[in-house]
Structure formats: structure tokens, C-alpha cells
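Hi Y.,

Following your request, here is the sequence exactly as I used it, all 189 residues.
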Amino acid sequence: MNTVDPKSLRRSRMFLILIALVFAAPMIAAGLLTWSGWQPGAKGNGQPIQPQRNFVDEKLQVLLVDGQTYAWRDSEPRMTLVALAGPGCSTQCLATLTSMAAARVTLNRNQSRLRLLYLGTPPANDDRDGMKNYWQLGEDVAGKLASYRPTTPDSVSALLVESNGTALSWYPAGFDASGLRKDLQKVIK
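Below is the corresponding structure, written out as C-alpha cells. Let me know if you'd prefer a different format.
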């Protein structure tokens, strides 16, 4: 009969328990952190909309230049990037709008999943009709987005809106267009 050394058996069991703890420790730590309310999150470049708003529920009406009402919910799931122009949108404002449209282009095959909506008077320096080629032009009928519109002349702010009409984040005037592009690439896949 083969006898097992009790000391060797205890050592083997100890190694087995240590191996199990190495694999279980991260799961236990994650469970404790979640239970305590901490959730990891990726830092976006926009400011979160607090309290959360849903433009469909609020019946936020945007009248397009062709007389149609803008549909926040579309026939397919697409997000909306809303540009809100400050007073006298001109050279600097147009440059920011061009960067925003370019951010949509960098989505490559997913660019159809982002709609561009411009609310306000089109830029004075838009000689090439670039606004009409990339943006749907409209007006916030009841002025419900006035708090997000910049007051600085020749500036623009932006709102990123989920396909169900929920506003996700706000990019105040002077925002970094490359940060917006990174955020778009994270949420539109």
C-alpha cells in the first residue's frame, strides 16, 4: 500500500487553495466595488447631460428648412450630433462645423449611423454650400435647447443625442473637435 506523507499532502492542498485565490481575488474585488456603488467608466470629452433628457418624451420640436419636423427616432438606429450656433456664426464657427462634419467622415463605413443637425442661422461665410451638403438645417421651435446655445459670437456648441432621443453629452463652445471625434468613435461602432 502506498502511503502519502501528510506534510506533502498539506503543501499540495495549500498550493491548490492559493491558485484558486489568485483567480477568485479579481472577481471578489470587482463584486465588492460594484456592491459599494463604484463603477468604472471611460472618460468622455463631452459633459454628461444631468438630469438626463429625452427629446422624444419632451416633444422637442425641430422644424427643418424644408418644412418637415425632425424625427428624433429614425427608421434605423442612428445618433444625432446637434450643432447650436451662437450669434453671428461666421469664420470660426464654420471651421468648427467643418471639423464636426469631418469627424463624421472619419467613422468610415459607420458614418451613416450619425446624422448632423444644425440649429440656427447658417454661417455667413458658407460660400460653398457645405452646410447644405453635410447638415440638416433647422430651428428649435420652442427654444428648449437655449441653455445649450453659446452666447459668444462666432461660436458653436454641440449635443450628442442617442437614437431613442436621449441626450448623452454636451460640448460647450470652444470644445476640442478631436475629443468629439474620439467620443464618436467610441459610441458608434
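The longest strand covers residues 79-85.

Thanks again,
Q.
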